[in-house]
Design goal:
By secondary structure, this protein is α/β, with parallel strands linked by helices. 39% of the residues lie in helices and 23% in strands. It has twelve helices and 15 strands. α4 links the parallel β4 and β5. The N terminus is likely disordered. Bound molecules: P-hydroxybenzoic acid.
Length: 399
C-alpha cells in the first residue's frame, strides 16, 4: 500500500481511536475528503427487524431523490451498513465507519439498544448521531452528540392516555414489549390516563424476541377492560393482530388502542378488518391529507414498488433533512461540534407537518395525531381524527 495523505489520516485515526478506547490517547477524530460529507447509515437490513431498515433506507434515499445529492457545495454520500439488530454489531460498525471511512455523521438505529450501544462512540468521536428510528426518551441523554428525528414513546403514549380518558374509556390493561421503549410507553400511558380519571387494571409485558401474545391476551380477556393499550415495535403488529383476532378479543368488545407502532403503515393493509376501529396516537400517518405528505407518499410508493411509507421512512427522510439544513447553516462545514450547534433549534416542514429540534434536549418537537384505522377506497389507513400540536417529549419536560 502506498501512503497517500488519506491513508495516513485513516491510519492516524485508527491509532488514536485504539489508544483512546484503551483510555490512553487523544480523542478520535473523524475525517472525510473535504468535498464529501459521509453519512454512516446503520439499520437492521436483515433479521426480525429488517422492515425498519428497509423503510428507513428508502426514506433516506427519497430525500436525496427529492433534493439532490449536493448541499452547500458538499456531495452527500450514504454508506449503508446492516447491523442485523445486534447492539455489538452496531457499535463495531459505528466505530469502523468513523475510524476507517471517516464518517461525518452516524444515522439510523432501528432499536433502542442499538442507539444506546453507539452513544459512547458518538461522544468520543464528536460525531453527530441522528436517531431516525429508536424512540426511548433517554437516548438523547446518552450523548451530547445524539439527536433525533423519530419520536419518543412518552410523546405518543401521553397523548393517547389523555385521549382515552376523555373519550369514554374507563378501564385499561396495558400490554407492551419488555424493553426500554415498552416501559416508556406503559409508564406515560398509565400516568396520563390515571391523571385524567382512568383506571389501569393490569400492566403486562411481553418478551421482545419471538413473542407469543396468546397467554397475555387471555389475561386481558379475563380482566374485561374497556380497552387494551398496546406498544410493540414496528413490524411486530401483524403477529399481534392475528392473535388478537384468534383470541376473540374484538368480538368480546375490548377496544384496541396504542401508539401507532402496532398499526404500522407498512403492514397495515395486510392485517385485514380486525384493524378497523383501532385508535392510535403517533407522529406520522400516510393518510395525512397535506400536499407535502401526499406528494411524499406518491413519490415513495412509486420508487419502492408500491410499498407505503411508514413512520420509519419519514424518520430517515427527516434525518437527511436535518443534515442538509445543518450543512446550509454551517456553509458546508461538517465538523461534529459545528453540525451539532447548527442542529439545535432547526425548524423545517416535514411530510409529517412542522418539526423543530429542541435546542435544550436535541429531541424533536412535533404534532401527534390521534388516528382511527378505517377503510379508504378499499385500503386500510390510519386516518387522523385529532391533532395535538407541537408536542415536546414530556419525559424531559418532567425532569
Ligand atoms: C425502539 O426500539 O426504540 C423502537 C423500535 C421500534 C418502534 C419504536 C421504538 O416502533
Amino acid at each position: 500500500m502506498t501512503f497517500t495523505r488519506r491513508n495516513l489520516i485513516a491510519l492516524a485515526a485508527t491509532v488514536s481511536v485504539g489508544a483512546s478506547l484503551a483510555g490512553l490517547g487523544a480523542p478520535l477524530q473523524a475525517r472525510a475528503a473535504d468535498d464529501t460529507v459521509k453519512i454512516g447509515f446503520i439499520e437492521p437490513m436483515t433479521g426480525p427487524f429488517a422492515s425498519t431498515g428497509i423503510e428507513a433506507l428508502a426514506g433516506a434515499k427519497q430525500y436525496i431523490a427529492d433534493h439532490g445529492d449536493t448541499v452547500a457545495g458538499k456531495k452527500i454520500q450514504l454508506i449503508v451498513k446492516d447491523d442485523t439488530g445486534s447492539p455489538n454489531d452496531t457499535k463495531r460498525i459505528a466505530q469502523e465507519l468513523v475510524v476507517n471511512e471517516g464518517a461525518n455523521v452516524l444515522m439510523g438505529f432501528g432499536l433502542t439498544p442499538l442507539a444506546f450501544a453507539t452513544a459512547p462512540i458518538a461522544t468520543q468521536a464528536k460525531v453527530p448521531m441522528i436517531v431516525t428510528s429508536a424512540a426511548t426518551s433517554s437516548i438523547t441523554e446518552k450523548s451530547p452528540y445524539a439527536t433525533r428525528t423519530s419520536f419518543t414513546l412518552p410523546q405518543a403514549a401521553s397523548v393517547m392516555g389523555q385521549w382515552a380518558a376523555k373519550n369514554g374509556i374507563k378501564s385499561v390493561v396495558t400490554l407492551v414489549s419488555d424493553y426500554a421503549p415498552g416501559k416508556d410507553a406503559q409508564d406515560w400511558f398509565v400516568k396520563t390516563f390515571e391523571k385524567n380519571g382512568g383506571k389501569v387494571k393490569e400492566q403486562l409485558t411481553v418478551p421482545l424476541k419471538n413473542p407469543d401474545f396468546s397467554p397475555f391476551l387471555q389475561r386481558v380477556a379475563d380482566d374485561k377492560p374497556d380497552a387494551v393499550f398496546v406498544f410493540v415495535p414496528a413490524g411486530v403488529g401483524s403477529q399481534f393482530m392475528k392473535q388478537f383476532k384468534e383470541r376473540g378479543l374484538s368480538d368480546a368488545g375490548i377496544k384496541l388502542i396504542g401508539t401507532g407502532d402496532v398499526v404500522d403503515d407498512q403492514i397495515l393493509n395486510d392485517m385485514g378488518d380486525v384493524a378497523l376501529g383501532v385508535v392510535s396516537a403517533h407522529h406520522y400517518t400516510a393518510a395525512l391529507q397535506t400536499d407535502a405528505n401526499q406528494t411524499f407518499v406518491k413519490a415513495f410508493e412509486k420508487a419502492n414498488n408500491g410499498m407505503r411509507p411508514n413512520f420509519m421512512a419519514v424518520g430517515a427522510y427527516d434525518g437527511m433533512a436535518m443534515v442538509y439544513h445543518a450543512l446550509e447553516k454551517t456553509n458546508g462545514d461538517a465538523s461534529g461540534p459545528k453540525l451539532m450547534e447548527a442542529i439545535k433549534g432547526l425548524k423545517w416542514e416535514s411530510p409529517r407537518g412542522p418539526v423543530m429540534i429542541d435546542p435544550k434536549t436535541r429531541d424533536i418537537v412535533q404534532n401527534i395525531y390521534i388516528d382511527k384505522t378505517q377503510k379508504v377506497d378499499g385500503q386500510l389507513y390510519n386516518v387522523p381524527i385529532e391533532t395535538v400540536k407541537d408536542v415536546k417529549d414530556p419525559a424531559k419536560a418532567a425532569k
